[in-house]
Amino acid sequence: MNWLRLRRLWRPAPLKRHYDVVIIGGGIHGLATAYYLARTHGLRDVAVLESHYIGFGGSGRNTAIVRANQRTAENVRLYEEGLKLWRILTDELDFNLMFFNCGTLMLAHSEAAMNGFRMLASTHNHLGVRSEMLDAQQCGELIPGLDVSDRPAFPIHGGLFHPPGGIVRHDAVVWGLAKGASEHGVHIHQGCEVQGIDTGGGRITGVRTSLGAIGCKRLGIMAGGYGAAVAAMLGIELPIHPLTIQAMVTPPLKPFLDHVFSSGAYHVYANQTLKGEIATGAHMDPQVNYTNDATAYYLKHQAEALVELIPALRGVRFMRIWAGLADMTPDMAPIMDGNLGYDGLYLDAGWGYFGFKSGPVAGKYMADYMATGQRPEILKAFQLKRFLEGRYSGETAAVMKYGHWD
After folding, report:
1. Which of 286, 301, 330 is the last residue of a domain?
2. Which residues lie closer than 8 Å to 335 by C-beta, 6 or more apart?
3. What would the mean pLDDT of 299-313 be, rounded to a whole number?
4. In a domain, 305, yes or no
5. Model pTM?
6. Is residue 3 part of a domain?
7. Residue 106 and residue 93 share a domain
8. 241-292 confidence digits (pLDDT tens)
């Protein structure tokens, strides 16, 4: 192979001193918004600013699970469209995103949890999204080796199977979107840290960065776990708390786990990657922080939880552990808004657990919003003012703790 003929997926570009649109954050949300601004709306004078390298944050620090089995109608509709986008984007970008439609299984460990799943299944099927209830024996048939006896501390009562869900290769999504955005004229600047935001006359005028000042007419804050800190540069206090989530993988094993599974009682979720690794994630660290530090506590927790549910994994070692930030709102639903006190300012933040799976579809609608100035109807439920008006999303009902519904 002639290595000299290999080309970068996205082209380096000179940093201009003014852009029509600047997007802060080189993760999936920022890159998707830039891609759709350029491809769909023909806006080519767009820059994506990333303080480290693209995909540095949550976009490259997750377990790559995608699904649409949320609690509220607003979220279900958004995530369902997001699931359909993976295949479309693979063709549009001419890049293999490695979408594997394997289905996801949520385990229930109490009758209260089963009742909650029945409500979820009814919501999903009413909205045209397939989900089905399984008893314990059917869960065991779906995932060989799953212990459906009464031996575990929290025996399995059944589960909710969601066939449309699956996994997507996270770095492939980042690279594919960067490739597509660059091909449509977007400038991607890595190692460009935003240090301040300039305003004048009630509107956004530019940003100050480690590489100099950049003027702009429209600014998108799409910085994932760091979004609240960026908004604070404008004196905007967001109801977002960044919390660390840790994940890890085993060495490659013979394929046996054909579906994603999760357990709220054990705070564990897992899937087998295309390389054969068991990728598994845990619950959030309880304290607010901005670190990507991994801890021995979660290594122990994951090992115990996985062996409790699938005893055959006893003795398997973990090969690697990492951590990322989840930007949690009080109602576990995102903030996508352009009514923030400054003309030309748009925010996409607060995705918590769900930032990866929502990236392309959020980018599509945020691009519509930024290009036209008109809020798409699907984003109406995700305005910041809902917190001031006491209209919290019902998404928190979809989170189980210790086998019970919060």
Report:
1. 330
2. 238, 240, 329, 347, 348, 349, 350, 382, 383, 384
3. 96
4. yes
5. 0.95
6. no
7. no
8. 999 999 999 999 999 999 999 999 999 999 999 899 999 998 788 788 888 8
